[in-house]
Amino acid sequence: MAITDWPEGERPREKLLARGAAALSDAELLAIFLRVGVPGKSAVDLARDLLAHFGGLNRLFAASQAEFAAFPGMGPAKYAQSQAVLEMARRALAEAMRAGDALNSPAAVRDWLRLRLAGLGHEVFVAVFLDARNRVIEVEELFRGTLTQTSVYPREVVKRALARNAAGVILAHNHPSGVAEASQADRWLTDQLKAALGLIDVRVLDHFIVADGGGLSFAERGWL
């Protein structure tokens, strides 16, 4: 059945306008983005198939152009649109993150980091450098690794903090495994970085671990 034949209150676009975007499922939101389905499938059906195939929104938007376009009904134009939507979301969150005290708006920092790091197939280590008022100076990807390991050198993090004249830093890395739990190596590394940065009076305010299944904050766990 075509979406136009559905009761008006159940159509994704009308539902969004009446109740807000948060009331829609992932498939309904994706259906609005897709606009149309394919023969035999509505946009919502196609959206559900896409989410099932890729394993969720994170992995869908992290897919390469070849992976995305290989799915029936998709192509370069839809891939370009999806990446434009994702980049606009990143930039909007980056603006919110830079607008004020990063500690007073941790959700903006966490949401940006999740959008930036979740779904990647390799580990990435990022530092958010802050000034004395906890405003964002710069966000830098410092190290990139394999599926299971990345090499992080405290000396390099210290050099970048000095170059940015930072007073504080929020650390973050992703777990491509999809499990947002800290390993002993993660905790040991955080302690090493905290000690090294402490020598130049730069505070480690948090360390986020990002994964498809959620995120973990060292500060919230009381590990800092």
Task: Characterise this structure.
The chain is built from ten helices and five strands, in the order αααααααββαβαββα. The chain is α+β, with helices and mostly antiparallel strands. It has a five-stranded mixed beta sheet with strand order 2-1-3-4-5, sandwiched between helices. The longest helix is centred in the middle third of the chain and has 23 residues, at 76-98.
Q: What's the helix and strand layout?
A:
Layout: H1 12-19, H2 26-34, H3 43-54, H4 57-62, H5 65-69, H6 76-98, H7 106-117, E1 124-130, E2 136-144, H8 154-163, E3 168-174, H9 184-198, E4 203-211, E5 214-217, H10 218-221
Parallel strand pairs: 3-4
Antiparallel strand pairs: 1-2, 1-3, 4-5
Helix pairs in contact: 2-3, 6-7, 8-9
Tags for this entry?
224 residues; 10 helices; five-stranded mixed beta sheet
Summarize the structure.
This protein has 224 residues and is α+β, with helices and mostly antiparallel strands.
Strand content: 15-25%
Mean pLDDT across all amino acids: 86
**Major β-sheet strand ordering:** 2-1-3-4-5
**Shape annotation:** elongated
Summed up, the helix count is 10
Structural class: alpha+beta
Stretches with pLDDT under 50, minimum 5 residues: none
The quaternary organization reads as single chain
N-C termini distance:
55 Å
Number of strands: 5
Q: What is the string of SSEs from the N terminus onward?
A: HHHHHHHEEHEHEEH
- Using only CA atoms, what is the Rg? 20 Å
Main sheet makeup: 5 strands, mixed
Q: What is the percent of helical residues?
A: 40-55%
